[in-house]
């Protein structure tokens, strides 16, 4: 009896542990390969002649051959605990640890559900996009933090998915990367569609692994190349954080290497729309060029992600204005520089591009401490923004007609121009205001537009006394060269203002030898070194 009891106990132990011999070791957890890969938006290809399966997850590939304990992950050997085999239902199971090693995803299988480790931004992003694609909206919401989940009930997520499909079609993952900053762990995912279009999703995860915000972006051209004056030995770059406590923004502080004493510094302020810290546009990164160029000239530069870029959903409150979009974060960045012992607090400047330049007088007006020593305005609109936008869309139609366009493309461009005409007419109508906006205003964020309508930077700057350098490209299709004339005329009574026009430079401060249309932004480009030197000379030498 005693011997039978021992034998029964031992048999039960073997069953529970799942192996024999090797007492004390748990069997490796296995997962169905196809289900695991498809849970992330990938696919599995079966090659019958080779008796092999290849898991494809973006650019990552993992080939497993039946009967072999060796597998290949992008040319790298990954050994399996035992030769690969299928079960009776022809499903290939793989050790979870091998899956993680081969495809680089911190995957977990808990109670029949797929989970991703909170530190794996790319994996989290792939999983979230797959849930969206499968219309599992509540599971997708479960991966969000409360602030974002409140903005995205299931019906809104459904519309978001429909918006992607209407513009692109169904999507297939082509690349998955991760990028980390002081605020977020970002999944950067590229997708291809049957229509030949591609798009990029950036999903911003907090340190707790919850989705904090997300952005649908055009694909990165990958054409940008650093300028000739970019000398990495002449500067160092540190990650910083600016912005408000609830919406912190990641940024970079570029400092001259081996600087002696305190150095002057510049805060870079973006143009309209959501912009990253480099103000990337097609093949150019205007703000990055300025940062490394000025650092070489002994000047520190602080650039950061625009609030509407880092938080495209959470930042857009009903009463959102240019103060929340631009001004507040710029002044916070100036304050951060004043607290840095390496920076000369009496020589902190602001450089605003396009809409950012237009708003410089407003920033100076709100700078109660007088911390801004001077400002540089690059392609700053001189009149009301709504009038400029209408002129831009009417210019698009005019060029299309001159080029002989017809059909649906021309109709679409004309419809956009008509919509802007309707919006501008309403903005010019004194019956409407922020307190009484038209119900049928055709543009999003009506409150933003009624807050800024008829704004005039030159009129505000006329009564100010902070030195200004105003620059303008002569080949600018977005802000006409005539704008600098308006600034000069309005500020003609001031002796601390300098203006300069650059023939041949477009809106992104790149040389272009044909009339600019904006299409050339896709080409690789850099800010010319002579612009960098003019900025540096003005900072170092001051107004004459």
Describe this structure as you would to a colleague.
It is a single chain. The protein has 18 helices and 23 strands. The model is unreliable at 1-26 (pLDDT under 50). The protein has 544 residues and is an alpha+beta fold. The longest helix is centred in the last third of the chain and has 20 residues, at 408-427. 34% of the residues lie in helices and 25% in strands. The strands form six sheets. The chain has an eight-stranded mixed β-sheet, with helices on both faces. A five-stranded antiparallel β-sheet has the order 2-3-4-5-6. It has a four-stranded antiparallel β-sheet with strand order 10-11-12-13, with helices on one face. The chain is globular, with a radius of gyration of 28 Å. Helix 10 packs across helix 12.
Number of DSSP helices?
Answer: 18
Strand count, sense and barrel status of the largest sheet are: 8 strands, mixed
Portion of residues in helices? 25-40%
- Which range does the strand content fall in? 15-25%
- Strands ordered across the widest β-sheet: 14-15-19-16-20-21-22-23
SS-derived structural category: alpha+beta
Report the principal-axis shape.
globular
Average pLDDT, to the nearest integer? 92
Strand elements, count: 23
Low-confidence stretches: 1-26
Quaternary structure classification? single chain
Measured between the Cα atoms of the first and last residue, the distance is: 107 Å
Radius of gyration: 28 Å
């Amino acid at each position: 009896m005693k011997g039978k009891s021992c034998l029964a106990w031992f048999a039960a132990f073997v069953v529970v542990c799942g192996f024999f011999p090797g007492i004390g070791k748990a069997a490796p957890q296995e997962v169905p390969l196809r289900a695991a890969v498809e849970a992330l938006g990938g696919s599995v290809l079966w090659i019958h002649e080779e008796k092999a399966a290849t898991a494809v997850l973006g650019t990552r590939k993992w080939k497993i051959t039946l009967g072999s304990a060796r597998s290949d992950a992008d040319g790298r050997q990954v050994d399996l605990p035992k030769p690969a085999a299928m079960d009776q239902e022809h499903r290939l199971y793989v050790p979870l640890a091998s899956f993680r090693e081969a495809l680089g995803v911190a995957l977990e299988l808990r109670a029949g559900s797929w989970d991703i480790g909170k530190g794996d931004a790319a994996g989290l992003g792939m999983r979230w996009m797959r849930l969206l694609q499968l219309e599992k909206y509540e599971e997708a919401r479960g991966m969000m933090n409360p602030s974002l989940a409140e903005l995205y009930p299931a019906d809104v997520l459904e519309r978001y998915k429909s918006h992607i499909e209407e513009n692109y079609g169904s999507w297939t993952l082509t690349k998955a990367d991760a990028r980390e900053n002081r605020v977020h762990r970002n999944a950067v995912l590229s997708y291809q569609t049957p229509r030949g279009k591609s798009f990029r999703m950036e999903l911003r995860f907090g340190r707790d692994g919850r989705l904090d915000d997300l952005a649908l972006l055009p694909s990165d051209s990958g054409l940008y190349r650093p300028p000739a004056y970019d000398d990495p030995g002449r500067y160092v770059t540190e990650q910083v954080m600016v912005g408000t406590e609830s919406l912190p923004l990641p940024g970079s502080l570029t400092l001259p290497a081996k600087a002696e004493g305190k150095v002057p510094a510049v805060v870079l302020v973006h143009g309209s729309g959501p912009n990253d810290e480099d103000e990337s546009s097609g093949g150019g990164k205007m703000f990055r060029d300025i940062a490394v160029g000025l650092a070489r000239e002994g000047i520190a530069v602080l650039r950061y992600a625009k609030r509407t870029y880092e938080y495209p959903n959470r930042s857009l409150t009903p009463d959102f204005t240019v103060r929340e979009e631009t001004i507040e974060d710029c002044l916070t960045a100036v304050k951060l520089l004043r607290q840095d012992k390496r920076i000369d607090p009496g020589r902190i400047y602001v450089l605003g591009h396009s809409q950012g330049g237009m708003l410089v007088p407003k920033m100076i007006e709100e700078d109660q401490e007088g911390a801004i020593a001077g400002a540089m305005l690059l392609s700053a609109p001189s009149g009301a923004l709504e009038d400029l936008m209408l002129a831009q869309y009417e210019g698009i139609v005019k060029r299309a007609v001159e080029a002989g366009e017809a059909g649906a493309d021309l109709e679409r461009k004309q419809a956009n121009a008509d919509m802007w005409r309707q919006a501008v007419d309403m903005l010019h109508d004194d019956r409407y205001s922020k307190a009484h906006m038209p119900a049928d205003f055709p543009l999003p964020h009506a409150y933003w537009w009624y807050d800024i309508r008829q704004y005039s930077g030159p009129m505000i700057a006329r009564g100010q006394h902070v030195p200004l350098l105003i620059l303008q490209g002569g080949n600018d299709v977005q802000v006409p060269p005539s704008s600098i004339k308006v600034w000069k005329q309005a500020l003609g009574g001031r002796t601390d203002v300098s203006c300069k026009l650059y023939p041949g430079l477009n809106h992104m401060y790149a040389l272009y030898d044909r009339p600019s249309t904006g299409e050339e932004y896709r080409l690789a480009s850099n800010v010319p070194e002579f612009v960098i030197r003019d900025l540096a000379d003005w900072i170092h030498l001051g107004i004459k």
